[in-house]
Amino acid sequence: MKDQIVPPNKEGKKLDLEHSLQLDMPDEAKNLFNLAKTRLLHPSGWKELCGGLSANFTLTDQRGMNKAGPAEKSDYMRIDIPAPGNKEGDGYDWVEIEEKVEATNENENSESIAITLRPAGNPTNDHATTAHFFEDKATSTFLIKRTGSEVKATYSGRNETINNNTGNAIDNIRNSVVAAAAKVGVSAGQWERLIQAFLKKDDKNRNFHKIISLF
After folding, report:
1. pLDDT tens column, 96-139
2. In principle, which of 77, 119, 152, 181 could form an S-S bond with 132, CB 3.0–4.6 Å?
3. In angstroms, what CA-CA distances link 20 with 3, 8, 88, 138, 199?
4. What are the beta bridge partners of residue 112?
């Protein structure tokens, strides 16, 4: 599935991260896969999973209104990063869920789910300008896959180019600074913590479940 859903990197930076766990029994792996899937599809709880200085993600519909999960194709995410916001996004960065793909292969005893995010305009206004520090060429793909007793989570960033031609000088500077920090590894740390959190075997994070139940 990864080769099918992750775009080729034609321009800018790319990033690949992976975390996996080997369980004792296939049934344990199936349970963990389902738990990881729930975590993946409820981005409003990602900050609680990551902890620390993580960005805050909120799942919204196509009008920018908060919505309950699970996330679906064409939904949006409103992202509040620990840095100054941009004017076009009303203080937030925005991405759209461009793809959501699930697959099962009985011959390989495997199942997988993936979502791809792409920088987007602010759905709460009529502006077409990308409200994100990366241009809309960039994508972020999260993949959860179980094969037998192994469960794997991956992150794939592609075509990460700075969005510094917005028509707003302050946003251009802000996007350049934030994107530069992302390129030197700030965002990599967040994605690494997130994919590891997807695969935590325990399900004792009460705050995560409390947060996702609010929407």
Report:
1. 999 999 999 998 899 999 999 999 999 998 767 899 999 999 99
2. 119
3. 18, 23, 38, 25, 8
4. 103, 145
- Total Cβ atoms within 10 A of residue 132: 27
Two structure tokens written together for 45: 């709880």
Main-chain dihedrals φ then ψ at residue 208, nearest 5 degrees? -60, -50
Length of the chain in residues, anyone?
215
Apex 7 CA angle, 36 and 175, nearest 5: 85
Q: What single string gives the DSSP state of each residue in the chain?
A: -HHHHSPP--SSEEEEEEEEEE-SSHHHHHHHHHHHHHHHT-GGGHHHHH-TT--EEEEE-TTS-B--SS--TT-EEEEE-SS---TTTTTSEEEEEEEEEEEEETTTTEEEEEEEEEE-B-TTSS--SB-SSB-TT-EEEEEEEEETTEEEEEEEEEEE-B---SS-HHHHHHHHHHHHHHHTTHHHHHHHHHHHHHT-S----HHHHHHHTT-
Tokens of 66: 């908060």
